[in-house]
Structures are given as C-alpha cells and as structure tokens.
Amino acid sequence: MRTHYLPALIAAVVLSACGEMSKLAPGADSGPNPALPEPNKTLIPTVKVAPAKGWPEGVTPTASQQGTRVAAFATGLQHPRWVYVLPNGDVLVAETAAPERPEEGKGLKAKVMASYMKKAGSAVKSANRITLLRDADGDGIPELRQVFLENLNSPFGMVLVGNDFYVANTDAVVRFPYQAGQTRITAQAEKLVDLPAGARNHHWTKSLTANRDGTKLYATVGSNSNVAEHGMDEETGRAAIWEIDRKSGGHRIFATGLRNPNGMGWEPKSGILWTVVNERDELGSDLVPDYLTSVQSGGFYGWPYSYYGANVDERVKPPRPDLVGKAIKPDYALGNHVAPLGMTFSENAKLPFGEGAYVGQHGSWNRRPPSGYNVVFVPFKDGKPSGPPVEVLSGFRSAEGEAWGRPVGVAIDKRGALLVVDDVGNAIWRVTAAR
Question: How far apart are CA 308 and CA 46, in angstroms?
Fold first, then answer.
C-alpha cells in the first residue's frame, strides 16, 4: 500500500466510526456487576485517540481529592513506563517502549492502527534502560539521577529478592546481583526463563512480582492479538500469568484467559494475588469492561472465548463452550476501555484514602467519549473491593482533547507517597497528603 494514501484512509476510518457512542450512564460500567449491553459491531471499529502533546509549561495533573496535592518527582525522562521502589527508598524507573515487531505492522488494519499509536505517543524508540532516582533528604526532589541498568530489551517489570534483582524484558526474565545502596549494575544478565515474544509480540509488556517468601516469581504475558484473530497457535503461553521458580527457572501457567494483565499485587489481609487486565476491543464503546481481579491458581478468565464470565464472544471460531463454562467472573470492573496498567495496594501509604488499590489508567482509544486518562483508588474491606472507584489524579487531557500525559505504573514510595509514571509527559508525579 502506498503511504501517501494512508492519511486519506485514516480520515475515512474516523468519519465512518464517528457515529458510535457510549449510551451507558456514568458508573454503570464499573463495580462488581457492570452493565453488559449487547455488542455494537460496526464495520469500522470506534476510534477516538487523544493526540500526545506533553505538558505545557507550569501545568501539572490535578490532585482530585481534598487533602492531597501533586508535584513532579522527575521530568525529562524518555518514555517512562514502570516504577519500582527499593527497600532503601531508591526509585527505579523503566524507560522503555515496544521492541521491533515486523509481523505486528503487516496488513491494512495494522498500518492504520500503527498510525494511531504514533499519534497517541506510543511509537517511540525504546531507551532500554532503568534509571535510579535517589531522594535521600525526603524533600520530593531527587539529588541523584543515575543510569542503573542499560542495554536491556524493552524492560518493564522489576523486583528485588534478597540480593537478586530481576527484570522482565519483553522476551525473558533476567537476573542481576545487587547490593544495598548500589547505584549502577554493570554485571552481565543471567537469563532465568524465556518469555513469549517473537515477530508479532502484540502485547509486549511483562510485569513482575515475587511471592511473600521469595521462592516464586510471577510474570504477566499479554495476548498476541485482540481476540485470537491470528489463531490460537500464536497464543501459546500468552494471555496468562506465569509462576516461575526463582532458583531453577522452572515454570507453570498460574492462570489463563487474561487478555492483557499488567500490574500485580498481593492483597495485604488475604495474601491473595490480584491483577488489572485490559479486556478486548472492537465491540463498541460500552464493551468490554477492563477489570481488577483476584487470581486463582489454575483459574481461567474467559479470553478469547468469553468475557466477564460466560458472555460468549461470537467472533472467536471455533467456539469452546467447555472453557466458557469454566470462565471465572472478575471481581471488579474498572470501566470500558480505561486501559488499567499500574496497580499497587495502599499498604504503607500515607494518604487519606484508606485501604484499597491504586490503579493507573492509561486511557482509551476504542471509546467515544474517551475514558481513563487518570489514576483511581478502589476501596477494599475484608480483602475485597467495597465501593465505587475514587479519582485520585486527573487533568491528563486538555479541554481540546489532547493528551498532556498518560498514567502507567504506580507505586508507594518509602515515605508513603504515591508515585505515578507518565509516559507521554515523560515524568513521574508524586501525590502526597496536604500539610
């Protein structure tokens, strides 16, 4: 296809998809029992992308709740996506983007989507590094900014267990030696286990956490498609959370049917693993809710055959009623197309929200009007969500619909503040209690 035809084609796609709009009342698509209307199958998928612009001088996100405030912790980063806090308080940020994926860009639809992702700020070259930020005096301004690790391969998840520092590259979990207070690692990576990647690698981000006793690692591996349109052979080991033996690298599939899981955390009271999941696209603005859920060992959560339990996706052929019958309904819907990526529990947080989970919502492209582009707090009681989501950080979109920023990873720092990584704004924001 000649590239000079592409803008005209995109314009035609936009015009043809402008009529489809959300019809649900605000909040109807969130909570334990979200509204699930009939699919709205349009000839052309709904597309509404917020063009990436970055923050105007002097403008920041808005701390949405009384008693909180927000300030920049770091700026001028290169497409930061994920954040991890070391025991000594040092903050690590993965500056990263998608790897080369030659099969992902093939075909007319893929070319159109690639153009939209560029508009949304996603099509950038990966820095392939992890940067360390040290705020020793606790004033919210790091005195040290240092390259901690480099020459990685689209890194994302990070976790420290003892003196072993693990990184989830897009194609493998690797291990490095680490000593407390170390500001740079120059040792060679030791591969622990390969992860699904390859020439398509549709969902390339791999998150990472460890269990409480440090014997196992857990890695998220998103699907290689929207709804298995390339065949299930390309989904081997994907749409899943892996459980990995930390010493040997031996692994098993811990849970499946999770289209694109990202942030994970252990609920403090129950000790159960939870994750946030990006659900499927192209069923209209009012389907399918992205969600926050506990994860059962051996559990199947529907993808690609069904969504939100046993709601069959008729696009997937051949059907699998045997698997649909086993599909676990997620615990809590966050909303349609909000794109949750980061998730952390409030343990050790010093913010006026109580017990619950903070979620970074990257924002929609497949919904009119747009959704997400914010950070929310989901209150918990007795180990389960107990109320509607509360907005923590907003203002990532301008009045004209441009994206000044897009939230990704979230973490609680050593002083109890919430850190929010912003990949379009190239910044980390810090939310604290107002003094």
Answer: 21
Measured between its terminal Cα atoms, the distance across the chain in Å is 58
* Domain extent listing, the chain: 89-358
- What pTM, to 2 d.p., does this model score? 0.94
Given 3-state DSSP classes, what are the helix, strand and coil percentages for the chain, each rounded to the nearest 5? Answer: 10, 35, 55
Question: Residue 105 above 90 pLDDT?
Answer: no
Q: How far apart are CA 197 and CA 195, in angstroms?
A: 6
Average pLDDT of the segment spanning 385-414:
98
Report CA-CA distances (Å) from 45 to 4, 230, 303, 379, 392. Answer: 22, 18, 19, 34, 30
* CA dist., res. 262 & res. 222, Å (int): 8
Q: What is the pLDDT of residue 45?
A: 85
What three-state secondary structure class fits 194?
A: strand
Q: Which CATH class is domain 89-358?
A: mainly beta
Q: Show the beta-strand stretches assigned E in 125-215.
A: 129-134, 144-149, 158-161, 164-168, 172-177, 190-194, 208-210
Q: Summarize pLDDT for 42-79 with one digit per residue, the tens.
A: 778 899 999 999 999 999 999 999 999 999 999 999 99
